[in-house]
Automatic annotation (TrEMBL):
InterPro entries attached to this UniProt entry: FAD/NAD-bd_sf, FAD/NAD-binding_dom, Ferredoxin-NADP_redctase_2, Pyr_nucl-diS_OxRdtase_2_AS, Thioredox_Rdtase
Cofactor(s) in the UniProt record: FAD
Gene Ontology cellular-component terms listed: cytoplasm
GO molecular function: thioredoxin-disulfide reductase (NADPH) activity
Domain named FAD/NAD(P)-binding: residues: 7-298
UniProt KW keywords: Disulfide bond, FAD, Flavoprotein, NADP, Oxidoreductase, Redox-active center
Documented EC number(s): 1.8.1.9
Catalyzed reactions: [thioredoxin]-dithiol + NADP(+) = [thioredoxin]-disulfide + NADPH + H(+)
Nucleotidyltransferase as UniProt keyword: no
Record family assignment: Belongs to the class-II pyridine nucleotide-disulfide oxidoreductase family.
Annotated protein name in UniProt: Thioredoxin reductase
Oligomeric form and interacting partners: Homodimer.
Annotated Gene3D superfamilies: FAD/NAD(P)-binding domain (3.50.50.60)
Amino acid sequence: MTTHTTRMLILGSGPAGLSAAIYGARAGMQPIVVQGIQPGGQLTTTTDVENYPGFADVIQGPWLMEQMQRQAEHVGARMMWDTITQVDLTNRPFRLIGDGGDVYEGEVLVIATGAQAKWLGLDSEEAMKGKGVSACATCDGFFYRGKKVAVIGGGNTAVEEALYLTNHSDDVTLIHRRDSLRAERILQERLFAHPNVKVLWNKEVREFVDGGGNAGLVALDLLDTVTGEHSRLDVEGGFVAIGHHPATELFRGHLELDSDGYIAVETGSTRTSVPGVFACGDVADKVYRQAVTAAGTGCMAALDAERFLAAAEFEELAKAAE
Ligand SMILES: Cc1cc2nc3c(=O)[nH]c(=O)nc-3n(C[C@H](O)[C@H](O)[C@H](O)COP(=O)(O)OP(=O)(O)OC[C@H]3O[C@@H](n4cnc5c(N)ncnc54)[C@H](O)[C@@H]3O)c2cc1C
């Protein structure tokens, strides 16, 4: 059991955590990044990334994250392959414990633990991820230009994803297992008014159908939740939009979370309800959820943390001099 101490402790090694590490290291904060079970974060689970600025050609998600990690290490951040299981945010330095018992102490804490998309849990869904099945229309919609696509879900996200996909496809189907949507009325009105969107009510996806070879997704097998009838919808893209799980269980009772479980931050900043603790990336963002926004708020968190610590240290020095 070892104790690791740092001025800036960062939890999470996705674009938010690594961007915070780059800025923190360059501000002389000697950050430690606890990487968690998914070093590099969500982008390591995808292939083509076409919307991260700075690259004229398509890049690969795992490659981008490897570059970010190397850049953070190059400027002095230390990576720890551990997962935090306990936190104590009552006093500074904040004290976190890893699953092997190691202790991490940070004068400031940056939380960048991300959010994971919820999935339907079908074997065929797992097998077809990246081959026609996605949980992010903003990320992948562009790859389905001119193709038939479907969105599965009934809340705001599903309706927003369906409307977003009409930028690329003139044949978008929203599939919902009930006979009414949970989405806000104004979104529903826009959806129902759109000529390129149709809604299939009372339908559950039973299988994402693989066309074999390199075909990828070719159809969805559907079950009518009222009549029990099976039907098939030909599509090349299936977007699962049934919500996200922010990785905030650890912080329940320690930090203020919003009604959906995301870390609450002050508008326009990364400050949380505990002074000295900052949150960035998808763990505090249920609106944009993109690599570039995660990186942007990661930068903000490092700057907010550096300013907080400089002010706190100045105050402590002034008190000591009294
Ligand atoms: C398949 C897929 C494709 C995508 N494609 C694109 C795209 O093309 N363009 C785009 O901009 N965005 C894309 N996204 C979204 C993008 O990946 C996310 O918005 C982004 O990764 C969020 O970054 P983050 O740093 O906030 O969190 P994440 O990337 O989710 O990283 C979270 C980190 O926290 C760590 N962690 C969690 N819990 C703990 C713990 N207890 N202790 C220590 N560490 C912990 C994890 O190990 C991980 O390193 C895609 C997402 C997916 C799933």
